[in-house]
Amino acid sequence: MSAGITLLGPVALVGPDGPVHLAGRLPRAVLARLALSTGRVVATSALVDDLWPDAPPARAVNALQVYVAGLRKSLAAAGLDGALATVAPGYRLDVPARSLDIARVRDGRRAATAAARAGDVDGALVACRTALGEWRGEPFADLLDLPFARVAATAWQTERVELVEELAQHALSLGRLDGLVHELEQVAADNPVRERLWGQLALALYRRGDQVGALAAVRTVKERLAEDLGIDPGPELRDLEVRILRQGESLVGGVAGPARGVASSISTTSAQTVAHDDLQVGSAQVVMPDGTVVPLVRVRSLIGRQDGCHIRVRDSDVSRRHAAIVASAGGHALEDLGSTNGSYVNGVLVDRQVLADGDRIEVGNAVLRYHAVSP
Q: I want to staple 343 with a disulfide (CB 3.0 to 4.6 A). Which of 49, 90, 215, 336 is the partner?
């Protein structure tokens, strides 16, 4: 366990000499809530709402102050003295990025993307593997009775699945199948309608010489899509099944030519398959933390908490009208609308940023995924 704050498992604080005691569940919740918004002020009222979502006690603010005082001592013991500041209208946690596991994951994903774009597939594979090593179990495992923790846990579990898919894409392209099938089987079992993941599993099985197992994997996801969502698989998965049946030569060895689409272009979620047929050429879509797909069919799509927003995010850290995705020449751009906590693209604070396929949009504690839709 790396020194610092860990959220990708039970919430913990670790110092140079090992774990640092946190006096109770609610102090851990305060630490987790502030760590999710590192570098940004979290209002006292938001913390009270997150700690006591049903009915705050009469002296909730006083209790919060006691928790903060205790956290300051614990942070100092972990070598993070002065990291927790009182800043109107609440508190701000400032810690080095390398001391926070979720920040290390974001750094790892950026490194993997940069390596892949530079043609260093080995480097991308290593970066994905390193980032995946940050998970120690279910994120926020000891706080899942709190709504803010459940939302964040769902987002970070989705992040892990996406990382596994990225790792599988690189491993398949390099022909490295050792352990890949087992890893994909474990993750696919928890994500029964995620087409890209199941397609990668089928391809890995086929390349390992198991045609029957590969066809069974395709059949399994087809059945779950029909039973759970009432839809058929997308064209990439259908094409993969045909290639496996015909023992297509393009499926053997490293991913190249048509087979590359099978490994990397299978829809991130089955819901995307539904939306794809309704979208116009050149349009795009946003995948929400729970996997819901929102087609971008407007010139300007508002992101925020209020009912009128086209992309509604239920998170107290998200402003009522937080940001907008606007159509631009050849694609879309994200514009911050003067939000309290800022808008981020791939971990970078932005005022306006042109979006590329696969970009991560971060508003409050929510992570959205932008996908361009090809003709």
A: 336
The answer to whether the Cα torsion of 28, 31, 35, 37 is positive or negative is positive
- Residue, of 254 and 4, whose pLDDT is higher: 4
234 near 271, Cβ under 8 Å? Answer: no
**Predicted TM-score (pTM) above 0.85:** no
Q: What is the 3-state secondary structure (H, E, C) of the chain?
A: CCCEEECCCCCEEEECCEEECCCCHHHHHHHHHHHHCCCCEEEHHHHHHHHCCCCCCCCHHHHHHHHHHHHHHHHHHCCCCCCEEEECCEEEECCCHHHEHHHHHHHHHHHHHHHHHCCCHHHHHHHHHHHHCCCCCCCCCCCCCCHHHHHHHHHHHHHHHHHHHHHHHHHHHHCCCCCHHHHHHHHHHCCCCCHHHHHHHHHHHHHCCCHHHHHHHHHHHHHHHHHHHCCCCCHHHHHHHHHHHCCCHHHCCCCCCHHHHHHHCCCCCHHHHHHHCCCCCCCEEEECCCCCEEEECCCEEEEECCCCCCEECCCCCCCCCCEEEEEECCEEEEEECCCCCCEEECCEEECEEECCCCCEEEECCEEEEEEECCC
| Residue 261 reports pLDDT greater than 90 | no
Question: Identity (one letter) of the amino acid at 308?
Answer: G
Least Cα distance to 266 among 144, 165, 131, 127 occurs for 165
Q: What is the mean pLDDT of residues 340-359?
A: 87
Residues 173 and 294: their CA atoms lie apart, in Å, by 31
Alpha-carbon dihedral sign for residues 306, 309, 315, 320: negative
User: Alpha carbon of 206 to those of 121, 179, 245, 246, 294: distances in Å?
Assistant: 22, 14, 10, 12, 34
